[in-house]
Rhomboid family intramembrane serine protease (Paenibacillus timonensis), 204 residues
Amino acid sequence: MIFLRYESWRSYLRYYPVTCLLLAANIIMFIVLAMNGGSTNHYALLKYGALTNIPELAGQGWRLFTSMFLHRGFDHLFSNSFAILVFAPPLERLLGWWRYALLYLGSGLVGNLISMGLHPVGADIHISVGASGAVYGVYGAFLYIALLQRHLMDESSRKTLYSLLIIGVIYSVLVPQINLAAHLGGLVGGFFIYGLIIRLLKRR
């Protein structure tokens, strides 16, 4: 089972440096929000980089990236950080740190672009934050492995992945505040970005 973590904290820090940096960035930005109005405060979220279709802010492309490190409420932070902590490490080891970072950020970007495409400027106000698009990009990469590189994933891990995806999609549909477009966009983005990386950016 590749999704079980056996490492000590010291080994975890050494083996998964990008994952640790992503977790640290999420936690630090949550603390920053908490000290500046709170993580559920729309003004604080917009100030620190939430993605939005508000006309005055919609053209600020940097929000496509900064919004990945902001979370609305502790439950949101915990669920995404737990997913990164537990499920992302095997992908970092498989791809290497910079390819993994490219896939993570690229998937989050794809998810955010699709989300904004469905919420154009002039529509009802839309404010989006969270690492979910990037997390689903990690799931998308594992889905590629489960379907097309079966020798890299054991049967137990495949079943765990399929269960995660089914539960995740159902949860995304049933809970109103969940950004389904970002989740599915990140999933598809991660699937295809992983396929491109293993072909165009092969490890030595």
In short: DSSP finds eleven helices and two strands in the chain. The mean pLDDT is 94.
